[in-house]
Amino acid sequence: MRITLCGAAGEVTGSCYLVETESSRISVDFGLFQGRSHAPEQNAKPLPIAEADLDAIVLTHAHLDHAGRVPLAVQRGFRGPVHATAATHELLEILLADSAHIQEMDAKHRSKRLVQGGGKPVRPLYTHADVEATLPLRVSHRFGEDVEVTDDITARFHRAGHILGSASVELVVREGGATRSVVFSGDIGPKGIPLLRDAEPPESADLVFLESTYGSREHRNLDETIEEFEEILTRTYREKRKVLVPSFAVGRTQQLFYHLAEAFRHHVVPRFPVFLDSPLAIRATEIYRNNTHLFDDEARALFAAGQFREQLSNLRLCPTADDSRALNDVEGPCMIIAGAGMCNGGRIVHHLRHNLPDPNTTVLLVGFQAAGTRGARLATGKDTVRIFGDDIPVAAEVVTLGGFSAHAGRSGLVNWYGALAASNPRLVLTHGEQDSRRALAHRLKNRFGVEAELPGIYDVVEL
Hints:
This protein has 463 residues and is α/β, with parallel strands linked by helices. The chain is 33% helix and 21% strand.
């Protein structure tokens, strides 16, 4: 068995593992590269084999850095099944449609500039038509169900606690008279994250691919983060501030709603206007509402009692561009939640351009900011950020709340691996910046005596 790392090797995007046996070829994840300057080139690069020759694609979850290139595989001839949990497939439909729109708009704008300069137009990475051709290939499964992916590969999905439907994928491979288990962690959520049940790792494996996004550090304690969040809400109301929250449409937005509802329910602050300025997040929130059976016990009880609807009666949805533009005239106290989470696109960019020069604005960063993104520039305290060709001065307050992350911190990753450690698996660290991988490898060696491997992109792991 050969496993080629076709992404997320020394960085946190582009997750893609090409798994080849004597008779099968499948991909675990097929994600977009995001943030860095090389992302467009990497996204367009084909697999070491023709995508049309893949027997199947198995997805850990719906985030685009794990699933965003599936329509490109279809464009290049892939026609096999796309296996994932049911909730992942629901979210995938809206995320891929949004991604196709972005690909088409980017290509349109780039082509216009190129043609004006005497060049040739460019094609989008993929289109809505490619997404429409992808959707019928989805095959949905329950957690814990054995899935016959090919004649010699069986998959099982284990809860990952990251976003709705997220899973770690366990492959059982029968080859050469031997049976081996390979586990792909996907993205692991922190223990006790609101709404979702905690991750449930497999009990054993021969080989483990473990993410390392936060392998070098811990998140702030969630209770402390909530306390700081509530202080920001109180000051927002008292000082009539405008709060901009660049938020990932799937996962982070719904978690923020939970904390807002709890703050209003416990009378931490009077209700003030909250605007959800993201058509994608609006649709994702509806999918969350339709899948409360995947929530933890506390969230299911609150939802059944109508607490979310009652406490968020001040929530205003902004599905149209006109709705979004009207927010320029809204005065504080208010909160505007808009995509994208790393400030590299979406409606939040327009709000940043309009409000960053205003010292009565707070920019609240509640998610991971990959190197090279506009969000990372804000997080590191830069005086200006470049938006639509202009350098915009940053007079607004910028606050980072790392405790709201949907990724496990270093100790969470170590503990997740600990559930498998007794089987003494071979360990490969992926999906993390190089410093994070090294730090996590050091911690795992100290605790379990395991020597983790840190391969580069297109390196091959043989088992």
